[in-house]
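<derive_structure_tokens>
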Amino acid sequence: MKLTTGSALLFCCILPAFHAIAAGFDHALSLPKRTENLVFRDRLKPNWLPDGHTFWYRVQTGPKTHEFVLIDANTGTRKTAPTLKALGLPEKEALKSSTAKIELRRTSRTGEESGLKFINQLGSDLDLFWINQEGEHVRYGGIRAGAEREQHTFEGHVWLITSRTGEHLAIIEAGPQLQTLIIDGKGLTPAKAEHPKKETGDRAPDGSCVVTSQADKVPKRQITIVDSTPTGQLQPKLKVLDYTKPGDPLPKPQIIITHKDGRTIRVPQDLYQNPFTESGRLPLTWAPDSHEFYFDYNQRGHQLYRILAADPKTGTVRTVVEETSKTFIDYTHKTWRHWLHASSELLWMSERDGWCHIYLYDTQTGHVKNQITKGAWPVREVLYVDDSKRQVWFLASGMRKEEDPYHLHLCRVNFDGTGFQQLTQGDGNHHIEFSPNRDFFTASYSRADLPPVHELRRSHDGSLVCTLETADASALLAAGWTMPERFTAKGRDGTTDIHGILIKPSHFDPAKKYPVIEDIYAGPHSAFAPKDFGRLLNHHILAELGFIIVKLDGMGTNHRGKAFHDVCWKNLKDAGFPDRKLWIKAAAQTRPWMDLTRVGIYGGSAGGQNAMRALLDHHDFYQVAVADCGCHDNRMDKIWWNEQWMGWPVDESYARSSNKDDAHKLQGHLLLIVGELDTNVDPASTTQVVGALQKANKTFDFMPIIGTGHGAAETPYGSRLRMEFLVRHLKP
């Protein structure tokens, strides 16, 4: 190839720039390795002793060090030692593979650092595998015949030992302390349990009758996806899945009572004519004395919800609880209940006063006896109900004006609404674990900008026994990781606070200008700005490329009261954008290094729908978007999630929120990503958008990722592609 002087000069200029970009990517992608294992005293799991007031835990104190801690909960007295034996506690005895059960299971959690010691007493070499969270067997080398080997691991990780021919010999799950496994033979294979034939229907406790649901079959929608490169064969495979979408017909069950003598009663459907059920069943609960049974009626459209009681002798139906809403009832998260059959009462969760609270019902009259919790804050989760003391223990948020309204706190209240007490006090998001006798609890709290603090408190009044640990993140910060910055600004109404975080690169220079990228997920089922401390690696990797990363929750998301939540109703395209833009602009007013002439956005699933919507309706603010596996048209996505927020019947509101229908409005740089094997969101939701963009003669990028399911942009290839696209168009 012949180069002119000009082209040679251009080549010489481009080559160093290319190498600089590649080096920047490599540096950013090395962040996980550079920052791992640098936060200490951040996790603990109490191991309570039989006396009920003493417990021990193992805590990491350095990169390769730990200590054991013994706590007397009555006094807060603390003893530390390098081993359990030094604390006067028995070390765990060695296990023998020949006496242990072989029960294959995947790793379900990652706890504190721990270790395993393997002693191979067999005459042949063995293989060692970690079974990861996906159930994959990841090989970690071998154990020679007659040899010993120690393996670093984490509490909760599951390990498999096999012969060289692949025969399973032993399974072990790592605990909080070093555990020894002597491999002296093949473990015990559990006998297959013989399950008695399951009876159809729900039998009354006294055996007098059985209740079943019958429904005419309705056609089930199926979708077809193509596995273009299946393992083990050259030719593609078709996969056909049952996949019900908004507006599809649903079964309408008829409840039937069948008595011992063969007599049947068809329970009148007047009060449950159009239930939302894909299975055709209406789960029920029997009263212990069999005088009636209870079942839920969630009317399709989610604006009417009833708990109904039926008399098994006559089939007569009455209403125990009825909830109505002009928008939607959050049936997946806010229909908790607790039956008090002995007193003919029911604890019931409702947002009828605008906030998620608990009510006490008389199940005989169907009337509210009293509201148990009250205030402009939501009950988030009920942890425990003490029937004898008539008390409810629950997590709530938003009770203190000076604190982030998403922070969870432990509370207790009596059934009559008296005696309310907030039992945790730290300024952070709390995680609670009770002692076995519930006399004490550990409260671990943190924030995005505060490493965890672990406390021991008394259950009766929440008083502090002692601070167990305060996490040390100094080594993490010294490695270049930057602490997220929390920020609050007013939303579209000028009064409601919107909360989020900003993340800066490790090489941050306040004299420079940085483009801004928002990670968006506006799914109404929850809230998503981080409230717990963590490394937030995806955000920090992007920041290292020279970006300011922001994450926040606008109106339409959950946990801030009904009015805040209702913004999403029949309006998923809103996605809180009016609040998001105001928040970012407010942050930039006091942060001149935020360059709002270069703003990008990315998200996956519902966040993919949101990210593309930014370039359809808000291209005056956002210029670049990466949309992964988006539910771009809510008529194309799964029924339960979309009808919950968009309602039923399917109406013009679905079209108004459709990225496909609005594809002609695109302005800016868009990258669409989809996994060809996505079974969560129909991949056609993305390809239909591609077709609409092509028809509108729009320029955009599209990358299907082969052999991948939902969340394709989080694969190594997809993540790198997203980084390259954002760098190319935002030019950090």
About this structure: The first helix runs from residue 5 to 29.
